[in-house]
Amino acid sequence: MAIASASTIVKFHEFPSGNVLHNYQPATQIDGPIRSISWSKDGNWLALVPNAGLAEIVSIKDQLKLIHTIQGIEEPSCASFQNTTKKNIAIGTKSGQVLIYDIKTRVVKKRFPRTTSEVNRVEFTAKDGHLIAACQNGEAYLYSNTQNSLSGTFKIPRSQTISALRTNPIKRNYVAAGSNEGVVAVWDIYGNKNKFFIGSHKAPVTSVAFSPISSDLVVSAGLDRQFCFYDIAANKCIGNIFVENSMTSVDFSPDGKFVVAASQKGNIYIYDSKNIQQPVHSFFGHSGPVEHLSFKKCEDYENSFSFSCDDKESVSTDEVLRNNESFAVDAMVFAESARCTPPQISVPPEDSFMAAMGLDQNNTVESFKQDGRGSDSSKKFLMHKYTPTNPSRLVQDRVQSETKIPMTSTPDIHDHDIFPKISPIVSLGSQPTSEQLKTSMDSVEDLVKSTVKEELRVVSGELKNDMKYYSTHILAQTRQMFLDLLMSMVKESIKVENNFNSLRQELVSENTQNPSSLFEENLMLKQKIAVLEEELAVLKNNQVNQNF
Questions:
Q1: Which of 74, 346, 479, 524 has its CA 20 to 30 A from that of 295?
Q2: Domain spans of the chain, in order of start
C-alpha cells in the first residue's frame, strides 16, 4: 500500500514505513504548491495540476514516468479521475470552466455550464453519476454527468468560502466540505439540503475525508492545530484531537483502520482509528507544508470496502455500527482521561492569530522544558475533548464500571432478571449499609454535577463563539453599508461635476462665434454709424439754413 503526498513536488511513500518510493517534479518546475492530485481507479496513474502550467498524468506501475500532458485546456486549477473508469478525467480551470477530458482520444468530451469564478476543486460521486465543483466565491456547483446539465448549487452555512471538498465513497448523495471560517458541512445532493454542519474549528479547514467503511464518519483538519471526527447520523462531533502543528491534509486508509494527517511543517502522522490519542508512527514528508495526501487506490480494496446504498452484502450494517460504536467509546475514554487531567496550554490573546496559524513558539517542546514543567508536559499537545449528549447514559456507564458489573451489548435474559431483587450498584455478597448507600449516592450526585457543569461550560463556549461570529458579521455589514454610502456619494459628486462641465461647455460654445462673422457685424455697425453721422450732418445744415 502506498500514499502520495504533494507540496511543491509529489512524493510516493511506502505505507506505513514512510519510505520514499518515487519523487516527481512537474515539468513546469514552478516554485509553488501543487494544486491537486488524483489517483486513477487501478492506482497506476496519478493526475496532478501544478501551480502553473498544464495538467499532467504520471504512471508508477513499473517505473515513474510522465505519460501524458493535457493540451488544449488553458490554466487548469484542479483535476479528478472518475471512480469507475480511468479513461476520463474532470478538469476545472481558473476561468470557471468545468470539462471532462478523454485520455484515450485526447479531446474534451463534455463541457458543463461555466461557473462565475475560479474552480478550486472537482470531485465525482461514488458511481460517477454527478460531478461537483467548488469555486472561489464559496459556491459549489452540482452537475449531472448523464444529462450534462446543472443540477443545483450549494453553500456552506455561515461561510463565504470553500476550502475543502470530498465525496462519500459509500453513499452517493453525501458530500463533505470545509470553509475558511472553520465550518464543516455535509450536503445531501439528492435532497438539495444541508445534512449536517458545525463550526468546530477556530481557523480555516484545510481538508475533509469520509471513512471508507462507515458512511457516517467524517474527519476534518484545520490550521487551529486539531482534527475532528464527526458522526453524521448522531449529528455531533465525537472527538477533537489537538496536535502541536497546524494540520494541512488528512485521509483515511483504504481499509479504514488508519487516519493519516500532514502538518504545516511537512511531517506526516499515522493514527490508529481505534486509538487516536497518539500517533502510532510519523515520518518526514516535505520541507514545506503538505498540501495534499491521498492513498493509492486499489480495485481489491474497492471490492472489499466500498458498496452502494442498495448493496447490503459487501459490508453488513452490524459491522458498520460496531465500528462507529467502538470509535465513539474510544473517544469517550480519551475525553474522560483528558477531563481528569486537563491540559493547561496558555496562549496570550494577542498571539491567538499566530497560534491559529501555527507560527507562535509558546507551545513547542523546548518552551515547555525551558519553563520548568519537564518533559512529561510535552504530552499535553494531544488534548482530547468529547461532549456527551446523553449525561444519564454516561453516569450509568461510570457507575457500572466502578461497581465492576459487566456490560454486554446483548445480555442474556432470564426469568429472575425481569424483576431483580438486588440493586445493580450493591455487592452481591452482602446487604448494603446506609453509609455505603449514602456514599454511592454522593458519588453519583457529584458525577451528575460534574457532567452538568461540563455541559454548561461547552454550551457557554458555543454561545460565546456565536456571539463573536454575529458581532463580526454585523461589523462587516456596517462597514459594507458605510462603503456603499461613500461610493454613492462619490458617484453623485462625479455626476454633478459632469453636468457642470457639460453646461460650461455649452455656454462657451454659445458665446464663441466665428471671427469672420464678428468682422462682418463690426463693418455693418460702422456703416450704420457713418449713415447716422451723415444724417445728423444733414439735419444740422438744414437747421442752420433755416436760421439764416
A1: 74
A2: 1-19+170-177+206-305+354-386, 389-408+423-511, 513-548
